[in-house]
Amino acid sequence: MVEHLILFNAEASPEEVRGMVRKAQEVLLKIPGVCGLRYGEALSKGARYRYWLSILFEGPEVVPFYRDHPLHVEFADTVFRPMAQDRITTDYLVLTEVLCGK
């Protein structure tokens, strides 16, 4: 699995950012090889990046396919990038995942 992690600040209200995330779920999860999407907000008001978005891919081969996929390109160009100009993005190979149980 690969985690496409984006840390960002937005020129938008928190409600508008959450709307963008809903649109990301609606669009990006339709791309073959995309198997999940997570979103979060910093607990600390002084954090360098206020928001994070994680798109999960089934494997490394999905990275170039996703990058060039028309659904991703349109979403990124028209919705995400105009809102989140201050961002960093890195792809991580997931080597270990341990989840807490209830």
From TrEMBL:
Q: Which SUPFAM superfamilies match?
A: Dimeric alpha+beta barrel
Residues forming the Stress-response A/B barrel domain are 2-92
**Entry's InterPro entries?**
Dabb, Dimeric_a/b-barrel
Pfam families linked: Dabb (PF07876)
Please report the name of this protein according to its UniProt entry. Dabb family protein
Organism field: Thermus caliditerrae
Its lineage reads: Bacteria, Thermotogati, Deinococcota, Deinococci, Thermales
